[in-house]
Structures are given as structure tokens and as C-alpha cells.
Please model this.
Amino acid sequence: MIHTRPDRDGQEQLRLLAAAREEAARYWQDEVARQFDAGRWTPLVQQSQAYLEALGALMDLLETAERDTEF
Amino acid sequence: MAWSGSEGTNKVHADIDALNGFHEALVRFRHVQRSVAERSDDEIEMTRASLAAKASHWQARLEQSQAEFDACRAVPGADCSGYARAVEQAGEWLEHIRRWQQRVDEAAGEFRGTAGAFWDLLQNDLPRAESLLLALIADLEAARRAS
Model:
């Protein structure tokens, strides 16, 4: 079993979601779309990025803690 | 709904397909990120347990080294410097692990605030965005049927 870090899986999923949003944006460009971008999409991306960056930093710290306490 | 190019049946289909794809990606994103959050909690707990086990191991080693050092000192004229070094080394290593335990606890505590906000987004905001998209798709499909 390949063990991947949760933050990397989360980043990959955010990338896939952004690609799906981009595809939808090719067709969906009305006022509702602009409201969706401002009210839903932008906060979702910003909050996801903040979370995944914080998670990445924490995972780095946990790995270092394990490594640095091996005698 | 506004088309980005010329209107037509194919355009409507492509539009609905793209929105459906986006909706499915949102649902998948919510499920995967929930799993990410749960796995993150597991990783934190595993590291805490690992550090606790190491601290326990070195605590026992410190006590054993101290007992050996004490026994050596009871022998007149014995060279106990090796035992003294072992006590010092075990004590330093135990402190090192305890500092890491504290650092991990602090970092996990700080992270909990960010994680809580994100969890709230997954539980509340994202389902609302998904519902909005579903309603849009339903409107588009109704418009397609009417045309």
C-alpha cells in the first residue's frame, strides 16, 4: 500500500476541482456565475489553500519530530 | 444562464455537462477532504503516541542508568564516569523528546483553529454550493425540455 500524505491528496483534489471549475466557466459566464465566484468559489479556494498549507506545515513538523527523536 | 458563444442545442448540452462535472467534482472534493481531515487527526495521534512511547522508553532507561550509577558510587574507589555519562545522555535525550512533544502539541493546537473553519466549510458551505449548482442544472434542463 502506498502511503501518501493527506495534505498532498487534498492539494491534488483541489487542483482537480479547479480544473472542473475552469471547464464550467467556459460556458457559465452570467451574473449568477459572478455571484457564485465571489460568494462561494473564491472563499472556498482561499480557505482550502489556507487549510492545506497549514496541514502541510504540520505534516512536515510531525515527520521531523519522528526523525529527530530516533536514537 | 449566458452562453459564452453562439447559442444552440449542443451549447446547452455542453453547458449542462460542464456544470454537472463541476457539481460532481465539488461532491468528490467534499468527501476526499473529509477523509483528509480524518487522516490528519490520525497522523497527529500516531506521532503523539510514538513520542510518548519514546519518552517512556527513555524515562525507564534514565531510571535504570541512575540506579546503576548509584550502585557504582556505593563501591569505594570505583570509576563511575561511564555510568554518569549514561545518566546524562538519557536525561538529555528524554528532555529532547519532551521538547518535541510540547512542540507537536502546540502546533496541533494552532492547526485546530484552521481545521475547524475548514470542517465548517465542508459541512455547511459546500453542500449549499452544491445545491445551488443542482438548482441551476435543473433550470437549464427544464429550459432544454421546453425548447
